[in-house]
Fold this protein.
Amino acid sequence: ADGVERVTPAALKRALENSAKAVDRVDRWAQGCGLVQALPAIEYATKHAGKRGQDLRFKVEVPARQNARGIFVRDPAELSQPLAFTVQVSAVFGNAIPDEAGRQAQLELQLDFSLECTEPWVTASSMLVLQSGISEYRPKSFTVRINPSILTPGVHFAEVLGVETTDPARGPLFRLPIIVVIPHAEGCGTPKEESEDDGNGKCNFNLDLQPSSTERRFVAVPDVAEWAEVCLKTKALPSGPHGVVMHALAHRRTDESHKDREFQKYLLLKEWSDDKHVLALSGSGGSALEIDLATLWLSNPAPCKLGVDIRFHSLGLGLGQGNARMLRIGGAEEWVRLEASAPLRGEILKPTATLDAIERTLRPSESTFSATPNEERDLWPPLQGEPGAKQFHQAVLQYNFELAPSEGSDTQKVQPRVESLHHQLYDSPVDSMLWRLHDANKSVIAYGGMIHDVDMLELPKGKYTLMLLLRHLECEQLQAVKDLPLLLTLALPKPMEAKFYSAAGAATLQGSGKDKVLKEAYLQRGSRQTLFVARPTDKVPSWCAPGDVLSGSLRLSP
């Protein structure tokens, strides 16, 4: 339109961002730049087409945050002092202008940026100069400083905008988003605002829930906390029971998914009630716990006064710091040692351990590599300026196994998983990651992917073959996974119980001496208890093979 032949993806994105309209009722950090304005976006793209740097994409990275595209601060330990971050910016030329003359013009380009901060608690260097092509390989850097001490409890959003000094009317060419979370209450430390804290892993606050609104609170989690009890307390409710939705999540500083520990539930609160819920905090010690509460106005449009009582617990296992607590009893061992403690408050110790599955590792019996068919769906589309599409390559890994169910059962429960690729999607080193399961007659009886587990498959006695499909643009990358192991989980017909003892000798003798099984104990705050988990004495199934591993779960609290 208007003489503009083409608009690069970067220019189109910039037109949508700089012409969008922010919505006042939605948090700025939750809506991005705002609602898309179609006609203003077209006018922006047309008006600024061909200007310096308009067709380029700018890569903004924070090295101290694993090259993240923004800054997210929500750990209380970081909020006690001013923060400084180095930010790197580079222009990505790619195929923005495919012809040689255009490329030369880009290489000779120099951009002078004025750095503007949208909030007073953020400061940055005033200027930044990008020197054409070398910036893609040697990015330019500037410093961002954040002062969280002047912020009130809640979520705060700011941006550092890179505006071209010779043409500020076209808006920022790159953005650095910054989010800072200030806790409303601390599970161990100084109380804030309406919250009360006893400095012993406990805090409470009162909420006045209004119709069609959400109350969000952030609570600092003690470093050693491993789980939390959240109690919702009500008093008199003159208008009757209230429907409330509760959403709670503790931030985890790893690459693991939050879904396993996310709590979301619809509750019906009655008057003078104490509604308790347990939240897992594995890997979340020292971070912030977010609790969101909202009334369901269709069930009761009246306001609701609610008290929230949070108690943090720990048995000193290091789960709060994300330490893996995998207990292993080797073939030459009779027990494994475990030490529990009560660093936050007195805890009731009621240990139980069961083994309910056998894990079997399989290696591919055959690996086949080939190029995908030369069809459009199997080709990587070419970018502007590239001669043609790229060919995909694929690897098919074949795993063979045989099942012989236990006596008295006609089927065996099985669950396949490629452990090294599990729960990976955009971060996966390969594509496709699909599998299908065949029986001895070549019939497909099950299929799945590497993103989620399938339900346990009930299979009869016989031989089976699992085919795993992996794809990549480079065949050499597929060669590196030709021996990729497959984890086969087989359910035991009956769980096996592992008993606990307070002494190594008792665990070795399995209770043959005077020492009895440890079933329950009370730990005072600061005390410790050594536990010895003994090897189960139950007989393993006849189909268990050398190399198989018994697996299960262990629970120490009631």
